[in-house]
Structures are given as C-alpha cells and as structure tokens.
Automatic annotation (TrEMBL):
Every MGS-like domain range: 1-140
Source organism: Paenibacillus selenitireducens
Keyword set includes Lyase: yes
Gene: mgsA
Protein name (database record): Methylglyoxal synthase
Any one cellular-component term (Gene Ontology): cytosol
EC primary class: lyase
Length: 140
C-alpha cells in the first residue's frame, strides 16, 4: 500500500477528477490524501476514501509537504495551472523542492500523471515499499 496525494489548482479540478475516475481501480487499496476541495470533488465522483487536508492556499500544500519531508508520501499528482498566478506560490515551490529532495515522483500535468499511474498499476513502485521498510535511522 502506497501513500498517494492529489492536488489541483481551480482550473484543473475537473481534469483531476476525470483522471481519478479513469484510474479509480488503480487507486483502490492505497492510502489517499488530498487538499480540501480537490479531495471532496474526487470523493463525490468516486468510491475512494481520501484523507482531506486544508485547502492549498490555507496550508494544505504544506500539510502534504510535511509528509513528504518525513518520506511518508510515495506519489503526488499535482495538476498545476501554469497560466494563473497562485497566491501561495512559495508553498507550491517548497512542496516541489521537498519532492526532489526525497525522490518522490510528482506529476504536474496529465501526461506525466498517466505515465506514473500506469507504472503504479504494473507494480513498478515496489522500490518505494523498500524505502519504507529500510528507512535510515530506524532501528529494527
């Protein structure tokens, strides 16, 4: 079971909902997270249970970032709107930087999201389960 987060800017919410509907079967059995409105919209259209954080501008991006910083997130689908300025842009940049630091796959557009979800469906994310099993500094 992997930890997967969904985030979408306002003009990308319909796109992420349709994407999750299309791949709902892949997401079943994983622990799902989302920022507030995005998670609500997905749950209204699917049978998925999603832990919803606050809205992105109110700190939801940072709440997901906290899981990334602890290496407790395995995949993020973050459909950004590159043509619209976001009031919480520093939070977005911080989240993406944390993903790079921790080596967390993050899709910022639908094409990359599809590649990552198809890899997830094939079982190509087994290396993430090893990361969880053998975390540095964790005594057995």
């Amino acid at each position: 079971m992997l930890n997967i987060a969904f985030i979408a800017h306002d003009r990308k919410k319909e796109e992420i909902v349709n994407f999750v509907i299309a791949y709902e079967h892949v997401f079943h059995g994983h622990k799902l997270y989302s920022t507030g409105t995005t998670g609500l919209r997905i749950m209204e259209q699917t049978q998925l249970d999603i832990h919803r954080f606050m809205s992105g501008p109110l700190g939801g991006d940072q709440q997901i970032g906290a899981l990334v910083a602890k290496n407790e997130m395995d995949l993020i689908i973050f459909l950004r709107d590159p043509l619209m300025a976001q009031p919480h842009e520093p939070d977005i940049i911080a989240l993406l930087r944390l993903c790079d630091v921790q080596g967390i796959p993050v899709a910022t557009n639908i094409a990359t999201a599809e590649i990552l979800v198809k890899a997830l469906d094939r079982g190509d994310f087994m290396w993430r389960e090893l990361v969880h099993k053998y975390k540095p500094g964790v005594e057995e």
